[in-house]
Design brief:
Layout: H1 7-16, H2 32-55, E1 98-107, E2 110-111, H3 117-130, E3 152-161, E4 167-174, H4 185-195, E5 201-209, E6 230-237, E7 246-251, E8 255-258, H5 262-269, E9 283-286, H6 287-308, E10 313-318, H7 319-322, E11 339-349, E12 352-363, H8 365-373, H9 380-394
Parallel strand pairs: 7-10, 10-11
Antiparallel strand pairs: 1-2, 1-3, 3-4, 5-6, 6-7, 8-9, 11-12
Length: 402
């Protein structure tokens, strides 16, 4: 008999069923396993007891819901009934996802966020149609004509939370060296710092590395037509000092990896969108290609010779590029430096982003190499330990391992 049932039930169960034993009646324990497992057993017992009670002239029993749980063996007083259980609290809504991508920061000198929907669409259609350099306007170059395919001066990161509006975040990242020529501010800054003049003479694309030949070759009188294999971006010369007082200047922009800008042009050309569009594809600034693969060979090739001449190399980068130089060790005095880093930033203004000097960092070539590569050479012991491990992987019984 079920010890958790009422007295009348125990009596009926003991006398009417002639000593037959039945499974305990399932309680309202709220456990899905128990309720599902024993619901049929409970109902069949109740129906059998009720039918025998009716044949003896007794009042049929209702479906029973109390008793001991066959699996838990706990009385109903210790188990909450489903009807008494507390209602489930609603789960808090999931936070909206924020996504970020890089896209056009400035387009032909105009901030992308300031471009009207019509201008964005018309400009994108032209880029797709021409698919090359077509000589668009450039407010930074002296001749006023852009020489870069696509006309993208800089990148910027854009973010969007959920389906909310798109907004630009973070600094501009220079992708075209001509962007550094804004108002010729960089020439005044470098000239004043290294040459002590704010009006240096700027000589562009000066040949530095001549081509080796087996026999002497007669070169044309015009040096600009010679087939140099290496040039310096600009050389700044003091306007009055004799002998010549000068410094070399390199302008280093940032490459990006990922999908090309044609994805953005295709999206913009599809129609005029009133709101700022979220970038169409993934891309990011590629510091590795810009620094170790591009700038570093230039420095290692040019600086040793320039150093022996008693001159200095100035390198212009933006603040985003400079932040990728890890552990750059500065020199306290300019006179001890071989490389002088001129770091710029772009400040928002009513008529667009304006270049402004941020800081000057003087370094040696070796310190710059370490910062650009992000590491130092291994010791001989550690390097040869790698060789031993690789040899063991090829042949564990190799004679060199003995």
């Amino acid at each position: 008999a079920n010890p958790g049932a009422s007295a009348s039930v125990r009596g009926v169960g003991a006398r009417s069923l002639e000593g037959r034993s039945f499974l305990p009646i399932v309680p309202s324990c709220g456990c899905p396993m128990h309720s599902l497992r024993f619901s049929k057993e409970r109902d069949s017992q109740t129906d059998l007891i009720s039918s025998q009670s009716h044949s003896r002239g007794l009042t049929p029993l209702p479906r029973l819901t109390l008793g001991f749980c066959r699996a838990c063996f706990r009385p109903p007083a210790q188990i909450a009934s489903p009807s008494m259980a507390k209602p489930k609290q609603p789960r808090p809504p999931k936070p909206l996802r924020t996504r970020r991508r890089y896209s056009i920061g400035e387009w032909y000198g105009v901030p992308f966020e300031a471009c009207s929907p019509k201008r964005r669409s018309d400009q994108a259609k032209k880029e797709i149609e021409v698919d090359g350099i077509w000589g668009g306007p450039c407010p930074f170059r002296p001749e006023g004509v852009c020489n870069k395919k696509g006309g993208v001066c800089s990148l910027r990161q854009y973010e969007q939370t959920g389906d909310g509006p798109v907004s630009g975040v973070g600094p501009l990242i220079t992708t075209c060296p001509s962007r550094f020529l804004d108002q010729r501010e960089i020439f005044r800054w470098v000239g004043e710092t290294i040459l002590q003049t704010t009006e240096p003479i700027v000589l562009g694309e000066v040949g530095f590395l001549d081509r080796l030949t087996a026999t002497p070759v007669t070169e044309p009188d015009d040096e600009d037509t010679r087939d140099f294999i290496g040039r310096i971006d600009d050389v700044l010369v003091h306007p009055t000092r004799k002998p010549l007082d000068w410094c070399a200047l390199e302008l280093q922009a940032v490459y990006f990896s990922g999908k090309s800008m044609r994805r953005e042009f295709a999206m913009l050309a599809a129609g005029e969108v009133p709101d700022l569009p979220f970038p169409a594809a993934q891309r990011r600034p590629d510091w590795r290609s810009s620094g170790p693969k591009r700038l570093l060979p230039q420095l290692q090739t040019k600086i040793p010779t320039i150093r022996t001449w008693g001159k200095k190399m100035a390198v212009v980068i933006d603040e985003a590029f400079f932040s990728s130089l890890i552990g750059l060790e500065p020199e306290k005095h300019l006179s001890n430096a071989e490389i002088v880093w001129f770091v710029v930033r772009y400040n928002p203004a009513p008529d667009g982003w304006k270049l402004s000097p941020l800081k000057v960092v003087s370094t040696k070539l070796d310190a710059s190499v370490k910062a650009l590569t992000g590491g130092v050479p291994l010791s001989k012991e550690r390097f040869e330990a790698q060789l031993v491990r690789k040899l063991r992987g090829l042949d564990a019984r190799h004679p060199l391992l003995g």
